[in-house]
Amino acid sequence: MCTQTxxxxxxxxxxxxxxxxxxxxxDALGAVVGKVSRLHDQLxxxxxxxxxxxxxxxxxxxxxxxxxxxxxxxxxxxxxxxGISNQRETCVAWDREVREPLAPAIVWQxxxxxxxxxxxxxNDPHMTSRIRKLSGLELSPYFSAAKMAWLLRNVPEVRKAAxxxxxxxxxxxxxxxxxxxxxxxxxxxxxxxCRTQLMNLNTAQWDDELCDFFAIPQSALPQIxxxxxxxxxxxxxxxxxxxxxxxxxxxxxxxxxxxxxxxAVGDLxxxxxxxxxxxxxxxxxxxxxRHGLVSSIAWEIAGKRSYVLEGNxxxxxxxxxxxxxxxxxxxxxxxVESLIAxxxxxxxxxxxxxxxxxxxxxxxxxxxxxLTGITRTTGRAEMVKAxxxxxxxxxxxxxxxxxxxxxxxxxxxxxxxxxxxxxxxMQLQADITGSSVAISSLAELSAAGVAYLAGVSVNMYQRxxxxxxxxxxxxxxxxxxxxxxxxxxxxxxxxxQARGA
Length: 501
Fold this sequence. Notes:
Layout lengths: L9 E7 L3 E8 L4 E8 L3 E2 L5 E3 L1 H18 L7 E8 L4 E5 L4 E2 L3 E2 L7 H10 L3 H9 L8 H11 L1 H8 L3 E5 H9 L6 E2 L1 H4 L5 E2 L4 E2 L1 H7 L8 E2 L7 E3 L9 E8 H8 L8 E5 L3 E8 L10 E8 L2 E10 L3 H9 L9 H8 L7 E3 L17 E3 L7 H27 L5 E6 L5 H11 L2 E5 L4 H13 L7 H4 L3 E4 L5 H18 L3
Parallel strand pairs: 1-6, 6-16, 11-14, 17-23, 23-24
Antiparallel strand pairs: 1-2, 2-3, 4-5, 5-9, 7-8, 7-10, 12-13, 15-16, 17-18, 18-20, 19-20, 21-22, 24-25
Helix pairs in contact: 4-5, 9-14, 10-12, 11-12, 12-13
């Protein structure tokens, strides 16, 4: 823990996301004093299965922590606490005695467990509604439970560890806590646990019925702590002479919600990452969706639990990566906005990024990607524009579902993530939702959320000084209502085609 003689007090936030890992240092005034990031490998099989190397992720966590402390000239005793935000639903199987992974981590995007979900639903048709009631989530390969069940069925090493009762099944937060903490604590917290589809939404504990349905042994699951608990103590692989507490852990989307100060019922934020999370604060009781959204836990802090309604999209920022890495239509994401400016404004090409089906609010695992509306004049710029525009169009459908579930008109959308740097897409987001868009001056909001939580836990922060120090750029709707209606109609026609309707 930071010492009284230290020249400054710092919180180290680790943001472990789908594409890479960031380490961000925040000082006592909430200012960023250093940040470093490092990418990890995206392991995609010929069948389209998406995996990560959990050991590589762990190595990168230690590397970015070391590098950011070096670049910010951090002295021993200055770091008071470590907070962790993480990609959700991605799951790891490891052996608690050997402390090594038993298989590559299955990434949240991966749909390899679709067949397993279909078989489970056919074997017990009544269980799908029961799953939603207990967990707040639709039966889907998107969530961790089906991924864990797939590992148990298909990886002999995982089955053997389960039989020996040394198996650990956890989301990325549990893996990092286990590896980083001197105590090798096997723990998670509600914002992550609720996304496994194994936690009872009302009790915030593992549910016997859900675990039995997926055939997941509860002995292999981590203990569920409060989000602001002390999960253990870490030297970050020998970086610190004295171990400091890991005392703020949240899933990345909930961490961004906290950083955006979305505390009042109806507050809404959108995180534009590899995929996107559209999340609304609903208060101390869960709200059931009638429009294809899911109910989750925001956090459990100071003994109080907060709930959210959420819609998740598999491919938003990942569409830009696809344009670069697979289609080679761009060399750098920064080119997208200038290409959009070059595109024919009358072109009506639409792209539906259903690479692994569609998430909220459609939940159509059979949908496939589609580029439609192409004419002889459609070229590179028009195709890039159509692909990029699929991002705000998908978000708009989720926001419409949120409004339907809560009978609230969304007046403001607080946004974060790399896509927010594209002013054209953010203006389009405002136009087609009819809501103002508030763009944060800080890109690393997931890190900011857990830094604040960890800072409060060690009495470094008494209020959200990180949020108070941020500025926001606001965009208001400018598009004529007739044009908005036309564009949304054309988008929904493309969706119907992608879904085979």
